[in-house]
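Practice problem: predict the structure.
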Amino acid sequence: MPFYQRGNVRIHYEEAGSGFPLMVIPGGGLNSTIAGLKTSHPFNPLDEFARDCRVIAADLRNANGGESSGPVEIDRPWDAYTDDHLGLMDHLGIKEFIVLGFCIGGPFIWNLIKRAPGRVVAGVLTQPSGFRPTMPDLFYQNNIKGWAPQLVERRPEVTLAQASQFLENMYRKNADFVFTVSRDFVRACKTPVLILPDDVAAHPYAVAMESAHLAPNAQVSLYPWKANPEQIQLALRHIGTFLKANRPAAAARPLAAAAQ
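Answer:
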């Protein structure tokens, strides 16, 4: 169980395979863990893409059931997690990478592209989360019930009020679209993205498709794509083709080499 340590942040991660780096952000909201890839996702990228990619996945900071931990940064919730994602790539000596994210990974991918456009060469947004006007408080309520109480129980220095304010800033302060970036940002984004829409409460089809229409270098997989194993295999072929088409011809450049 390898860990990356940065100050008082400790991130558990796993790797599989070799080739161009593929960062994977599991779904599950703030309880996003590597273990969840094996039990509650349509497919496990650590298994599916290890033949062609160096697949890297991590437990989200402070996820219940995970091994990653760190401060609850109330004033910058999305960016704190993005610090962890970029910090892990720095720790591994990886400059450029593709990122594939489920659920909450959608907003994280947009934030990664915003924060590190020269490093994220492409993104795969799989059943991405987004704001649904008919259920405006869905994510706050899900997490104040399903994430905050267990966190407070095991971390006595964190109060429920602090966890609530963290969620307030994360999901209510910018309650629109994909939470982390604006429509204007997506409209101007040149990074290639592949979007696999879903249509459950937390993964609105309308937001996924609006993102696809706005982003100038977007592709959309078939929908529905996970109703049966045959459809999932078609989606995996599309993802595999997208990954091969968008990885640079040269191998990933280590950070030290890239700086020379």
